[in-house]
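Consider one such protein record:
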Amino acid sequence: MKAMILAAGRGERMRPITDVTPKPLIPVAGKPLIEWHISALKAAGVSDIVVNLGWLGERLREHLGDGSAFGVSIAYSEEGWPALETGGGIHHALPLLGAAPFLLLNGDVWTDYPLAQLVDRAANFPGNEVAHLILVANPAHNLRGDFGLAGGRLIPACAESFTFSGLSLLRPELFADCAPGAFPLAPLLRDAAIRGRVSAEFHDGRWSDVGTPERLAAIETLLSSAPEQPA
């Protein structure tokens, strides 16, 4: 199967670092953030990876090349700048992703979630489902959460909501009615969840949105006192 790593964003809250370095190349415990994802995907048996390029995209291409240095194959979806937001970026990359379900990873998160579980789910993905999301506990910067979870199903609005981790399994069908251009992903997921076509699970392990210098420092501290994880 294939995977897509979202890497086109500007990283405004990480400026001035991201003025010269794309956010996925920011080192976390001595290793660029995107390399954590690539290592985890390879360990899970996924070697065909699509990376979308926007802000400082050429820096990412120069660093990653064709992926052979990491034991994988990387194709690039060029968006230019401004980039196409999450939904638009995925839609733009569909010709590279093919017709089968694919893994989606936000390039600016760090987690110890075992990606092999998503690979296994893809092999037995119910035909009526268009997405499976990994949810996590709400961090301080997103206390309201994003989605509810009940009986393994994603609930668009719920008294108890959790945060979308940025890890998911998607079918290209999710974008069947979309037109090219910039648009967010969340409304598509909510609409599909209302129709009962999105499943979800809760991950109670380690996860961080590396979106600010403070969060970067926190994950650095965590990793300096713990064994290296695959993702």
